[in-house]
Design goal:
homotrimer, 289 residues, alpha/beta, TIM Barrel, 8-stranded parallel beta barrel, two-stranded antiparallel ribbon, globular
Chain lengths: 289, 289, 289
């Protein structure tokens, strides 16, 4: 598995990242998924405080607590900033965002404790908060970096303007913007989302890199060259993302160990440029101008 | 009333600004509105050459002419650049913009004379002129600043690209972009309009901060928490804007003295973050993602 | 004919540029078009590798080959990066883009040979390639500049974000973005396309400056002031573009020598600002706000 920096001053991650979004499963099953990932060289795990209604960090952390040596073999990403009504968070009565200094600190302490770790490799602001106070966020990030509790910082689902605004307040680089990109959601290739990251020499992380079920359902033809590459549909979809010069890190969301191995092998596929454009043509319903 | 700088090098304004857009009234009535504003600590008055078909500056200036000491108690904003067919401007036969050096100079001299003042605290280009020549505008602004006739400069209704383009030609900061923002016009929170200003450390001014009548007509539920804050609908709508970290200066447009006092008290309301998001949810018709 | 730099460090071009897009004609006819252009002081010729299914550079080059002294009287622009299925390019089976270092080098060598010249005055990336690797492009541009084979570099049809991204990788300025602008395609005046170029002090080139047939068909009224200026419809449409402060260089696409002379005279028309806005009002179907 290729390992690569998200930014010159950023962390080294496995090019394919295991997403814990749907890992709301018995510990034994999550343990299997962790082992299957590490076996493939997928060492980076993507969390958020809210995944599994605030449970997935807990389950993952219980495994690390029982097997502390695992922590040295992996990098941990988590997110903060979204609050919604939940039995686990009784003070929220409407879905909202909270990127106050106080909540960032609280959320980091909570994730450290829950994940049974002394450091988060990468912390992301989960969603662009219209009430985000960039001076507060900058101060919180600076103190967390200084304390060693969080090593690197980034954002998720930010527009180019939001990314550049927040970056302008922070004295070290944001190292990623985790956004939705896939053959089914290809707008970021054209609307400036990837351009702004390339301008800042920042690699994107891609959530939902397979585009959910709709890609296969709506555009089966996109995979017509799979046999040429002896590849599965999943591998074709990931190889399409990996070909982009922005250096996308796909976050795979599977809950099946065998799909982790399958996804990992996408890294070895180098799509021909014309095949890449043909796949784009199929999902766009027209050729490039 | 809170007083605050629009930009580190900008003027100090009252956080709530009195807009003279609809002050096309008998002098006695305007005098009452001025007194009611000053009484509330609202010391900043927002004009444009064209308001009231070029009459509102005249009415306001007549009051200052009779009572010159008033000028020291207030800051004056005015705008230039729009021309339209009018008995007062017989040379215009189609609505158009004019941001030529010559017209900016003419318009400033005219506003100084009309407003009976020796200085304009803040001059805004009223609309983004597709024929705006940034070198001409930069030269005009520079000479007007040097002469002391205009102390600060900004724009109105500019897109982020237009703002950054013009700023790149001017050696001192533009100190505001006056745009339409309200619960009824909340796109600027998401489309980069506020982000670009925060990036430049520039505070926005908000015109039509109550969203006209349509807000109350279409979204009465947005004010359901008014009683919790012992607030009126107007105060809730202003408090919602004042909460935004961009540091918005609402320009209120009322023609009723009692509404000025009502609006001024919005400054004391600190909306709970969840209430703020609930109000946004109601006007958007959906919760945040 | 006015001559002007595209950028302080860019080439000096004739303000009106002759486009070879449709010059897929017998050599004698192209020779006539070249002579008619030079006679009007139109010394800049706009090519692309693909025009006339890869034939127009060949025809033009044959003329230069027979009359080498012509080359000193003109500036040559060409483009690269688009590939499509064609008998002349049998290796392409789907329309796609190729901005690899290897293809840029190959395409420049091919254009030099085909155009019978030792230098290209300006090379453009024809379309924003989603697979464009900015480091590769920067390296290719740098080496081509050093070798003297290409004197200046730019892009075509790039969005503002794409332009700034690529520029951030190149140590010398991109000197233009050739985009579609006309009375029929006036979005670039408002969507940031021209603003970003003005911010970078880069002049746009305009393709299809007359808007094809649709402008005259849909909006005949736009030319109602032609008689006031003793101008033709073509001249009015070009004068409208030439008035814009971005300093647009229209690329005219005619195949008739007499239309070249007609177009050249547009340079002498200085539209009144109100006439300019009236023309805009007619194509927009509404006056400015």
């Amino acid at each position: 598995m290729e390992r690569r920096k998200l930014h010159a001053q950023g962390p080294v991650f496995s090019r394919i990242i295991a997403g814990a979004w749907r890992w709301n499963l018995p510990e034994a099953a999550v343990n299997q998924l962790i082992d299957a990932s590490l076996e493939q060289g997928i060492t980076t795990f993507d969390h958020a405080d809210i995944y599994g209604d605030h449970s997935n960090e807990v389950i993952f952390g219980n495994i690390l607590r029982r097997n502390p040596s695992l922590r040295q073999k992996m990098e941990l990403v988590t997110k903060c900033g979204i609050k919604f009504p939940s039995a686990h968070r009784p003070s929220s009565w409407v879905k909202h965002y909270d990127t106050s200094r106080e909540h960032i600190f609280w959320s980091v302490e909570n994730s450290l404790k829950t994940l049974a770790t002394d450091r988060i490799d990468l912390l992301l602001i989960h969603r662009p908060d219209p009430l985000l106070n960039p001076e507060e966020v900058a101060e919180a990030f600076g103190l967390l970096k200084q304390s060693g509790k969080v090593l690197h910082f980034g954002v998720s689902n930010f527009t180019p303007a939001q990314f550049e605004m927040l970056q302008s307040y922070i004295s070290f680089p944001l190292v990623t913007n985790q956004i939705e990109i896939s053959l089914a959601s290809h707008a970021p290739l054209f609307d400036g989302s990837l351009d702004i990251l390339m301008k800042h020499r920042v690699a994107p992380m891609a959530w939902s890199p397979l585009g959910g079920g709709k890609l296969i359902a709506d555009h089966a033809a996109v995979f017509s060259k799979a046999s040429k590459y002896t590849a599965t549909e999943t591998q074709m979809a990931l190889a399409w993302l990996l070909k982009h010069p922005a250096g996308i890190f796909p976050v795979i969301g599977t809950t099946k160990p065998e799909r982790i191995a399958e996804s990992a092998h996408a890294i070895d596929i180098n799509l021909d440029v014309q095949d890449w454009f043909e796949m784009l043509k199929i999902v766009q319903g027209k050729e490039m101008p």
